Amino acid sequence: MSDTNTTVIEKLDELDGRYAELEKQLCDPAVNMDSTKVIAISKEQGKLKSVVTKYREYKKLVDEIAQSQTILNDASADEEFKQLAAEELKMLGEKKQTLFEQIKESLVMSDDAAVGSVIVEIRAGTGGDEAALFARDLYNMYTRYAEKQRWKVELLDFSTNELGGFREVIFNVKGSGVWAHMGYEGGGHRVQRVPETETQGRVHTSAVTVAVLPEPEEVDIYINPADVSEFVSRAGGPGGQSVNKLNSAVKLEHKPTGITVNMREDKSQHKNRAKAWRLLRSRVYEHYQSIENAKRDKTRKTMIGSGDRSEKIRTYNYPQNRVTDHRINLSLYNLDKIMDGDIEDLVAGLVEYDKKLRLESL
Fold first, then answer.
1. How many helices (H) and strands (E) does the chain have?
2. Whose CA is closest to 316, among 129, 125, 138, 181?
3. pTM recorded for the entire structure
4. Looking at the domain covering 225-296, what would its CATH class be?
5. pLDDT per residue as tens digits for the range 302-323
6. What are the residue ranges spanned by the domains of the chain?
7. Contact yes or no for 6/43 (Cβ under 8 A)
8. How far is CA 199 from CA 168, 202, 266, in A?
9. What is the dihedral angle through the alpha carbons of 50, 55, 61, 63, rounded to the nearest 10 degrees?
10. In what order do the strands lie in the sheet with 166-174?
11. What is the pLDDT of residues 124-166, one digit of tens each?
12. What is the dihedral of CA 21, 26, 28, 33, to 10 degrees?
């Protein structure tokens, strides 16, 4: 057995033990009296269930292989019986190998697969109006991709320029596997094309930043309301007199981290406050998670959710109909289809590379 596989087995034994411990806790009457504890334990158990169930099935296969091998090694066993054992051994060996590959994938990727809601923030960077227009194009690309995946998209907040581009747009995407697919989009996106505003036909380079935050449930993170300052003001911008008369815009500041959130898209102050709290929870959760990850393991290797806004991750070259993802040196010459939401090949390449990194760092 390779060193990587030995490490995987050790990790699986640890998770199996933890799962058994959680099962015991759920049978404890004292724990059952506390609904918050029950929810937290059930949630942790739910995350482990898939990989532990497969591992227990794998251990059964290992036992069955050992039994078949014993028959083959028995000099006194009937030849016909030995032949059946040899056939069984071949079939069980193939099944064991397939299952182990599935287990390895579950082990390093299952936490991400369990997150079913993300908040995406797209902001225009260098390039003025052209950057804002490309921010709009990226928003359209992601919403079309979400439609193809049958995910639900909710627009939370936005501000536009005179040409209909987005200076900033914030939206929520909900659905199975959404973080496992969208989590790689965080970082700097560069576009090379002739802008709508360009009269000389020259190619310009503009930049847009994308942040993708997993949206935690309230059980995942508690923010003390006393740690949050709230400011209410009149919402400016389009929407008529009714918007400007109401104190509908909400700003929240999380004092321990200095993280601030502004929400002004809705006419209702109550709805803006609810959206602002969702965004604040996501940003604070991501802030503390990144600190924990750095503390826990300096050699931790994963690409998902690690998108630094200053890091250039992808270039969209319109004259060449090409998209290049710089993290995996992948170039695809179907930019028109990608901008229409067909980003599955890009995502698949990133997932495969990320899985390899994670297995190496186990």
1. 10, 11
2. 138
3. 0.79
4. alpha beta
5. 677 666 667 899 999 999 999 9
6. 3-113, 117-219+303-360, 225-296
7. no
8. 26, 8, 37
9. -140
10. 152-160, 166-174, 117-124, 204-214, 187-193, 312-317, 322-325, 330-332
11. 999 989 999 999 999 999 999 999 999 999 999 999 999 899 9
12. 140
- 3 state SS of 126: coil
Q: How far apart are CA 268 and CA 265, in angstroms?
A: 9
Name the CATH topology of 117-219+303-360: Alpha-Beta Plaits (3.30.70)
Helix, strand, coil shares of the chain, percent, nearest 5, are: 50, 20, 30
Which tokens belong to 169?
Answer: 């747009």
Tell me whether residue 12 is exposed, middle or buried, using C-beta atoms within 10 angstroms of its C-beta: 0 to 12, 13 to 18, 19 or more.
buried
> Is the alpha carbon torsion for 77, 79, 82, 88 positive or negative?
negative
End-to-end CA distance of the chain: 15
Cα 290-323-175 angle, rounded to 5 deg? 50
Q: Which two tokens stand for residue 56?
A: 């227990």
